[in-house]
Specification:
Elements: H1 3-16, H2 18-39, H3 55-66, H4 83-99, H5 114-119, H6 126-139, H7 146-154, H8 160-163
Length: 165
């Protein structure tokens, strides 16, 4: 007997017993649903995706224990057409999140640090800083020349390191 004949006989047998076959199908669906309900689940905690026995997981767990300020951290990056629009959006977002004490313990804006506002130019590389200073000098109504401004900037303590280079 060929596989085609076996399949034809199975279909004919099932057709003659349509009601029991429908009940059997419904029973299988119900059992599958109960099994899925009790044995399948979704865990959104990404820390539990990999077992703790992995060497890199040991390091990650130790880092989380040693630096708790970086655990359960949500970072939002705000980008806008202009710096003013970006600043306004970031401020509004921080204010809105800070009001939600049920879901967020603290809100920090690293970009609004007084240190970065005062010393932020120190983090630019030399060519970028040079281009920025050239633009500032070109836009300045001052009669000072570039060598005079550079000499004055080079004398300020935070800038001595790059002015000597």
């Amino acid at each position: 007997m060929s596989p085609t004949d076996l399949l034809a006989n199975l279909v004919a047998w099932s057709y003659r017993r349509a009601i029991p076959m429908l009940l059997l199908g419904a029973l299988l669906v119900a059992l599958s649903g109960v099994t899925a309900l009790h044995h399948l689940g979704i865990n959104t905690n990404t820390n539990l995706m990999f077992p703790e026995s992995l060497p890199w997981r040991h390091n990650a767990i130790a880092a989380a224990r040693d630096f708790p300020q970086f655990s359960e951290l949500l970072v939002a990056v705000v980008d806008g057409r202009t710096p003013e629009a970006t600043e306004a959006t970031a401020g509004a977002l921080a204010t809105a999140i800070a009001r939600d004490r049920d879901d967020f313990r603290t809100v920090r804006r690293p970009d609004s640090s007084a240190y970065l506002s005062r010393e932020g130019l120190l983090f630019l590389d030399a060519p970028t800083l040079q281009a920025l200073l050239d633009q500032l000098i070109d836009a300045s109504p001052s009669s000072e020349s570039w060598p005079q401004i550079r000499a004055r900037v080079a004398c300020s303590p935070p800038c001595r390191c790059w002015a000597r280079a």
